[in-house]
Amino acid sequence: MTSASAPLTRIAEHLDTLLRTREIPDYPGALNGIQVEHTGPVTRCALAVDASLPTIEGAITAKANLLVVHHGLYWSGVQPLCGRSYTRARLLMEHDIAVYSSHLPLDCHPTFGNNPLMARALGLEPTAGFARFQTIDVGVMGVADVDTTALAAKARVLAEREGGALVTVGVVPGRRTRCWALCTGAGASSDTLREAAQTGVDTLIVGEGPHHTAVEAQELGIAMLYAGHYATETFGVRALGAELERAFGLPWTFVPSPTGL
Hints:
It is a single chain. The protein has 261 residues and is an alpha/beta fold. It has two domains: 8-106 and 234-252, NIF3 (NGG1p interacting factor 3)-like (Udp-n-acetylmuramoylalanyl-d-glutamate--2,6- Diaminopimelate Ligase, Chain: A, domain 1); 107-232, Udp-n-acetylmuramoylalanyl-d-glutamate--2,6- Diaminopimelate Ligase, Chain: A, domain 1, CATH 3.40.1390. The protein is built from nine helices and eleven strands. A six-stranded mixed β-sheet has the order 5-6-8-9-10-7, with helices on both faces. Strands 1-4-3-2-11 form a five-stranded mixed β-sheet, with helices on both faces. Helix 3 links the parallel strand 3 and strand 4 (98-101). It is elongated.
């Protein structure tokens, strides 16, 4: 039996259409889509949160020649091909590994997105968008009637499973979550707290945020669940791995590389 394979261009077209890559605004350093080409075709995929030396090495170990990531190679802007940048590029070229990245298009997708998938993993059903960025809502929100401590316990299991740890603010016995919002990654900011207060959110679930957001949340009476940037963004790439297997028959491997943050 011949192993499945597909041209990189076909896979990229499929993902770009699926994720609405050209329609979704993003930060300049995201550079969504193909970041590195190869001679191909794609025969096995590796999926990871970050494009880094450990995940590139993980792709090599898995014998994958396409690395699909949430955070790509170019967050710091233009860089000389020296030091770590050179090593990453050299390994990709030597092993003929392509890189495809999807940041906000993956965060907000209703089926494959980090935000709706994490919400459902916590037993929450999104009913609206949250965390406005330009023309899109990156996160999700909804209504519930659950014990906040029990919700935090679920988030703690999720975070620890992915190599992180949960930090909570304002989670006290007897408190209930009736209106929640969720924004994975660096989801806590003065903007998202302001939006939460304006929309009646009593519990905000995020990956991480600066210290001042914990202070602001206490003043606003909003319970905060910081579940970790990395831990909250493993959902989307795993979902894309399953989608590439469904659409192209390609085997895939998730390459873990938790930061603890």
